[in-house]
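## tool: complex_structure
## caller: assistant
## args:
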Amino acid sequence: MSDVFPKWTNKLPLMVIVGGALVGGAMTMAVTHYVSPKYTRVGYQPIQPVSFSHAVHADQLGMDCRYCHNGVEKSWYSNVPSASTCMNCHNQVLKDDPRLALVRESYKTGKPIPWVQIHKLPDYVFFNHSVHVNRGVSCVECHGPVNKMDEVKHAKSLGMPFCLECHRDPEKRLRPLSEVYNLDWKAPEGTVPGEKFVHDWKVLPGDSCSVCHR
Amino acid sequence: MRYFLVIFILTSLGVFLIAGKQGDVSRKPPIEIFDDMVRQVKFRPQQPNRFFENERTSQLKVEGTVARGSAYEDSPVNTGKFGGGNTNFVSAIPIAVTGTLMTRGAERYAISCKVCHGALGDGNGVTKKFGMGVVGNLLDPVIVKQPDGQIFNTITHGRNLMNGYGANITIQDRWAIVAYVRALQRAQFATAADLPAELRK
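## result:
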């Protein structure tokens, strides 16, 4: 009488367990790595219509963020400057440079420059710039070191865990109001200046849904 | 089992090679699956919008209208001039000059004026090195003698090659800057008599 099952089937349970573990493990790893804004959004660096360098303007020239983004302290969104703001200097500096052709055209005709938005929250999130910058949250916390970027890149995930990390523990991220736009600022060694601000300004960011989702 | 392992490793490697890792630079916009809630049919500022002829969501105000809450009165605070047909500049800042206003002025000066006019107001801002030709020296006796209203007017509407900053700086902040410019001038032309007695030697 011959065997009903060939010999190798003895190893079948082991193969199923090992194979299942490998495939399952790899799938889990792939999902945690790829299905996250840390993968889908971070690193997004579109080619902009004008090759504007934040590194030159903010770092080398030392311009304040608010020279151009002048609505950020008063408004929920941080505005992109109008072409006339660029022309305050570029009517003399690099006056005929071909890289600035679009800016000059926009200044003359009023046609907007088609800047590509990089940091884009979902429409069901109601983020307010002014409340953050006026309570000691620096630009760098969410946008990364923009003052060192020649081309702006999406640096932080801006996913919900990212927001909650700070909302649940704001002390570590708050800084003196005079340093909010100083992206290179570091808290003095061994101090957490935010503790004082959380107390003095009664910072209660909250972590319930309705804080950000209305 | 051997074939399975080979296929498994090749597939994993393939996925990794194509998809890369977190933080890789990408020129293409992020993938959004099921984006109906993420990108809702609503207008956001400074976005393109084909509803309007000029294709903008943020519309400019209609010629001859006044936005709610914006300054429109022909008064010294709003224009730096006496108003009511009198186009002379007011000689003194028409709002209360306090310590808070001065601090605010210093901050606003650093944001909007310093790059060209310099921290001292002497016209030696950092932009000079980059081809900014003519920058006014705020310590020039001509400007020192100007009435406050005229400096306000220059900030609002510009002068010579300088563009107006009326759209970028609020009225209160413009007066704060005027106050700070006055402080810079006073500091520059200070004499020993301006010091309190105990500091004089």
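## assistant note: The domain at 76-191 of chain B is CATH 1.10.760.10 (Cytochrome Bc1 Complex; Chain D, domain 2). The radius of gyration of chain B is 28 Å. Handing back to user.
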